[in-house]
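Please annotate this fold before class:
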Amino acid sequence: MPPRVLIADKLSPAALDIFKARGVQADVKTGLKKDELIAIIGDYDGLAVRSATKADKAVLAAAKSMKVIGRAGIGVDNVDIPAATAAGIVVMNTPFGNSITTAEHAIAMMFALARQLPAADTSTQAGRWEKNRFMGVELYAKTLGLIGAGNIGSIVADRANGLKMRVIAYDPFLSTERAVEIGVEKVELDQLLARADIITLHTPMTEKTRGILSAEALAKTKRGVLIVNCARGGLVDEAALREALESGQVGGAGFDVFTTEPATENVLFGAPNLIATPHLGASTLEAQENVALQVAEQMSDYLLTGAVTNALNSPSVTAEEAPKLKPFVALAEKLGALAGQMVDANIKAINVAFEGDVASLNVKPMSAALVAGILRPMLAEINMVSAPAVAKERGIVISESRQEASPVYDSLIRVTVTTDMGKRAFAGVVVGGSPRVVEVKGMELDASFQPAMLYVSNLDKPGFIGALGGLLAEAGVNIATFNLGRRAAGEDAIALVGVDQALDDGLLAKVQALPHVKEVRGLSF
């Protein structure tokens, strides 16, 4: 059956056309109440939304088949990302589809504030010709302070440079080289507050940015500063801004976003020199078309090929990378499953080493798949989306290393698991598109992964193989594959035996009782 996607908010018809063209079944059901959404969400592999539909814990708990949620836009406040991650659901947004539109709205706000356009329009249309009342200021040669210089902020900077403004920016992630490239001066926040004639915000909402323009910060600004927020509600302390507008500390504010939306009432409403719009930053025909196209393409790519684009909780995988990564992701998951079934003590750390050609690929999906395999014996529903977050919650340190050359194989993946009892290492390769294990506990062997397997660690003594084979034959267990490894004659040895049916606890105990046997485990893949 083709994958099914529910379009739960109003999107451009172009999105539906793309889903259909790609072979994805898409149903448009907008305006659903929460209980209606919960009743049907279990039938879908994907959910496409804007900002109206809330994918909260209750909705996600009912989404048993859900693989991906696509947000046509930037903000994902309406999606419970931790809950989606725990459920193994990829959450995507479309961060670039409405960038120009949002940046232009911020520029429009700046002009409207500088020339008091809304108030002048209202006055003039009311029949008052108050030419002397509306004395504006030029943007030319003014200092614009950007809080956030990412994708949208850099577009605003470009337009402001075209207006011959001086642009300064506060952004902890802005490199000196990037600042030069986009034509801004990188400064600290206090410097920006002291120097800017106009401040515009272009940062996501995080615990660090919430209330970044607090009462204390507003007091540090130039008297009469203009403030524009077309980013996220809550970045500015609205009550403090109201006081600053009334005192004249802030000369005007243009707000497109508010702490609570829809903002049918707000402490800012009615303040002097306030311009307010109803979250129109992305509201142009071009932007709505772009984000609809992008979300449909991204979700289709993931559901059909495994390509991950603009995900907020999973490593990105391009459409070109996906086919190359697929066999190595499968190997990593099998290796992880082997390691997870071979350790009993509390896991403290997991190191994944990539050797040879595989080291030049995008290793994040492989690491995530491997960690998922290790944790699955303890957490059955975990997958490569949720695994890194779960490992972090449990205090497990994940590390990666790369080595361009591999002594024997073109590509090899090795995992070392550190527990309270010590370390265990396992390595595998891809042969003919299929994963194989080539090293267990430092001993070389070459075994394919079978659905049911028996692992035995023993002393390398004559007669062991015959005794094991006889015991399995007596129990009616057929051997599919038999692979051996050892350190040296008479020392530690291992056997990985593929069997046609899993061994029960009683039979495992009998294998454990054979002479020279140290450890026995039943494995499943």
In short: Residues 321-342 form the longest helix (22 residues).
